[in-house]
Amino acid sequence: MEDEIIYTIPLRDVTNKSKATKRAPRAIRKVREFLKRHTKSEVVKLDNSINEKIWERSLNKIPARIRVKVVKEEGIAKAILVE
Predict the structure, then answer these.
(1) How does pLDDT run across 6-36, given as a tens digit for each residue?
(2) For residue 44, what pLDDT is reported?
(3) What's the pTM?
(4) Are the CB atoms for 48 and 17 separated by under 8 Å?
(5) Nearest Cα to Cα of residue 36 among 68, 81, 60, 1
(6) Other C-beta atoms lying within 10 Å of the C-beta of residue 23
(7) What angle is formed at CA 9 by the lines to CA 2 and CA 4, rounded to 5 degrees?
(8) 64: DSSP letter
């Protein structure tokens, strides 16, 4: 059974609570944790497009939010950037 859901993941708190040199890595971790919590799956695979979107404007200028489409199949959640 496949479930397909679109999430908007807020990253503003990562910007406000992190040093400029650690924002992008923490944003990736936040996306992973968010999807684990909301999809209730242990394995979350992020598409390269998500990584490119977060790192697009360098290490310290991450986007405020990203929209992600998640396909869950057999306990594995695969995330793809929407846009």
Answers:
(1) 999 999 999 999 999 999 999 999 999 999 9
(2) 97
(3) 0.91
(4) no
(5) 68
(6) 21
(7) 10
(8) S
